[in-house]
Fold these 2 entries.
Entry 1:
Amino acid sequence: MIGAFKIKGGNALSGTLEVSGAKNAALPIITATIIEKGTHILHNVPNLRDIGTLMKLLESLGLKTEKIGRNSYKIINDGLTNLEAEYDLVKKMRASFLVMGPMLAHAKNAKVSLPGGCAIGSRPVDLHLKGFEGLGATIEITHGYVEAKAEKLVGGHIVLDFPSVGATENIIMAAVKAEGTTILENVAREPEIDDLCNYLAAMGAKIEGIGTGKLTIVGVEKLTPVEYSIMPDRIEAGTYMVLSVLFDGKIKVKGAIQEHLGSFVAKLEEMGVKVKFDGDLATIEGKMEDLKPVIIKTAPHPGFATDLQAQFMTLLALVPGTSEIKETIFENRFMQVPELNRMGANIHIDSHVSIIKGVEEFSSAEVMASDLRAGAALIMAALKAKGETIVTRIYHVDRGYEEIEKKLQKIGADIERIKVEM
Ligand SMILES: CC(=O)N[C@H]1[C@@H](OP(=O)(O)OP(=O)(O)OC[C@H]2O[C@@H](n3ccc(=O)[nH]c3=O)[C@H](O)[C@@H]2O)O[C@H](CO)[C@@H](O)[C@@H]1O
Ligand SMILES: C=C(OP(=O)(O)O)C(=O)O
């Protein structure tokens, strides 16, 4: 038996959806607690499967983790008792590889299983490893594990070939306690990187250039554990804003930070949607029947986020005319397409481009979530489709959306968590 959502589409949804803490900020920040001994307190941590997996990994390394509130954790670091992050935990989630930089910073020694690829792409880690080498570590890869060691970490000048989010995070965390100054160029500028840097800076790390493509990190001897609250999830916010467009703007989104959503909002506006922000409350104005097709290309931030591509496709599938989405970050991130087509969409993949011809409506079907954002895209299609849709393999969705069915029920959705035979 496997978890699924049973969704009866067609209900008129309205109300306010609240965004939780950002998964993609919480995960690196949790790994950063490995760097320094002491008691770390984190708030606004979303209740997600990925968070549970990472806490287990931290425990396996010798840290103690305790949930001290609905979205708060106490992480006690009395020193690492194990310097090996095992395949069983790392394979469940790519972000597990982010323990490597912190372990190096803490113990100058780390053995971490290679994460391998996943449904959306091959997801290599060569840039992470080059960065560690640039800080003086030696790297050995044997039997599916990466072992990194250093007598001491020393500041270096590292220029990334590509602004990789994970590599930027891992290298920053390794560098904050390295001896001397590290200059990191062509780094990723995703808001989650700023959140990680702000967290490290709150602990006493010296990082200049936060929010830019060049970071200068002056190593410090010691950090001081602090209490920190994770930023809101801009991908969850974007997902719910797409849902709002699908329901003619009847849904407001609380916890949407305008500066995090620039190119996404620009695309909505190009389609004819008006987006207003009152603080962190986003309101959508526009009717589905008036929307125009658009051409989208995913890109590193501040470009259009790959993590919003699948959800946006659900919207474009119902917009008259022909839209296009080019995916440039991951080689296999159109897994939602055959499933959306099973629900009546007219989408054709030509290499890295999806050509989307708008249809009038979706029809209900049994469909399968292949990955996290594809799952969200299918749930939204199901909420629009007449009849009953079953979305299976929702464990993917649980990796990244906190209590999605409860949030959707509150705005009038007929969605229920069930078990089905697979
Ligand atoms: C730039 C980008 O949009 N990154 C996304 C990526 O981050 P994530 O950190 O997972 O991925 P990266 O940003 O590292 O990868 C971006 C690209 O760089 C390549 N690469 C990466 C590391 C490496 O060592 N070698 C290498 O070649 C990858 O194959 C990929 O094509 O997935 C996350 C989850 O979906 C998103 O939140 C991030 O926004
Ligand atoms: C694919 C995602 O996450 P991860 O990098 O953890 O696989 C995502 O957040 O959309």
Entry 2:
Amino acid sequence: MNNQLPVSILPVPFDWGAGRRGAAAGPEAVLHAGVIRRLQQLGYRVQLRSEDCLPNTSADRRTAMQLKHWGRVLTINEAIAQEVRSIAAEGLFPLTIGGDHSIALGTIAGAAASRKRLGVIWIDAHGDLNTPETTPSGNIHGMSLAAAIGLGDSRFTGIGGYSPKLAPERIVLVGARELDDGEKKRIRELNITCFTMHEIDRYGMGHVMEEAIRIASADADGVHVSFDIDSVDPGEAPGTGTPVRGGLNYREAHLAMEMLHEAGVVTSADVVEVNPLLDNGQRTARLAVELIASLAGERIL
Ligand SMILES: NC(=[NH2+])NCCC[C@H](N)C(=O)O
Ligand SMILES: [Mn+2]
Ligand SMILES: [Mn+2]
């Protein structure tokens, strides 16, 4: 986000890509926590996209063991892709608020439609690099990044009408601390840059983000930030469906967002996996708003 571009917020109340319900209430909680006013205070023009532009998928019962609720996930993401594509075409900054992380299938399909060399910074406790062959759960939110690079079921890799959306060399993972065996193998084979919590502890978040920004934006025509709130430590962000201890602390998460703003390279973003049903009051939704503000340029001084 940079101050010239008006922001279009796309709320996606959808959680069929996750193993537990609740993230569908994420957008309402983040809106209630004041994200629009916070962005306006920073000088942005803000438009709230109506969620009526997204289909109601509740009647769709298509599912499979290794691809749970694939009908609903596919339908919503084709619509998200169209919407994000239009938002970008209208000259607005697309900020999508989830929803579980399966919705990144659509946001990346929409963002990469007009940016053939899109970089991605994927801030997450997980890799979301599973395919139907490697998934331990069948939950599609653990497969969205793999699908964006063209791996997995063709219905999903083909969302938005083209594949692949991303080149592995412009993808950077930040904050990983729970990777499945198949994901580890894939990260090594494809040479995807992955700054795990080990690198963050060892070299510091400042250094890690400098590198992440450099790698994702080198030779790129835009950078998408996909921020899974479970990247943050569960002590700070308890309201999420797949918490993993040992995550980013409060200042590290803010520093990452502040540096992304400063770099001026981010062209679209999503914030996902806020689950108000599991939250301690509004702690996690409020944190999401603060982090969005940092990404939008809010500073201490
Ligand atoms: N977006 C997320 N929170 N993903 C969690 C994925 C967990 C696990 N790796 C799986 O494939 O099921
Ligand atoms: Mn994720
Ligand atoms: Mn995650």
